[in-house]
HxlR family transcriptional regulator (Marinococcus halophilus), 204 residues
Amino acid sequence: MQKTSICPKYEFAAELLGKKWMGLLILVLLQGPLRFKDIKKEIPDMSDRLITERLKELEEKGIVERSVFPEKPVRVQYQLTNKGKNLEPVINAIQNWAEVWV
Amino acid sequence: MQKTSICPKYEFAAELLGKKWMGLLILVLLQGPLRFKDIKKEIPDMSDRLITERLKELEEKGIVERSVFPEKPVRVQYQLTNKGKNLEPVINAIQNWAEVWV
DNA sequence: AAAGTTACTTACTTTTCGAAAGTACATGAA
DNA sequence: TTCATGTACTTTCGAAAAGTAAGTAACTTT
């Protein structure tokens, strides 16, 4: 990310998407705001540890927003920011390719 | 890839792209056929070991074709198949997003 | 009071990666 | 002939990332 120089911005994005579970995680978040448990339900093979870790990463990069609702049992919700929602064409492109070639 | 079931084809693609260096590797291969040493030059931070490993993986999945030209010093060339070339929209989508949001 | 839910965290194992050196084959220079 | 250089890998080994399982804190339901 720091030295290779074809296109640093692309490299940032490729490194982000180039992490295990990121593609799936963003796909499910495109559905709308989800709670931790809902993400678990959608991606049962992804461990709690990695869900937490990836969400934190996406939050730090401004792609996901974490909201806490202090209801009776506290509710934590994750949703894509604009930056995140704009990844939809990427996800769609992957889906289209997969439809045709996988 | 076997159990999670949102969309197995998408998951296959996401897992492929979701590997370190894959995004960059495919990007540089979109330029046209390249030799091992050229890939090294384009992605200096990627180790020989991983270049070999990723290319082998892409070859097995029918995304890259490896050709050996028995010239004076043997020449080995890697190029995208149709399946691989059709990843261009995906790469472009990533690039567009990166341009705007990174 | 015991058991369950939610959103995590911690500890430990396994897998993957990175860095460096080594290999096989060939050409070219000293 | 010996040495250095180049290409395309392969091997080795320590470090980082991911997988697995169990634990925690706050609250709710039974």
User: Anything to note?
Assistant: Chain A has a mean pLDDT of 91. The helical segments of chain A are 8-17, 22-29, 36-42, 48-60, 82-85, 88-101. Residues 35-37, 48-49, 51-52, 73-76 of chain A lie near DNA strand C (CB under 10 Å from a C1').
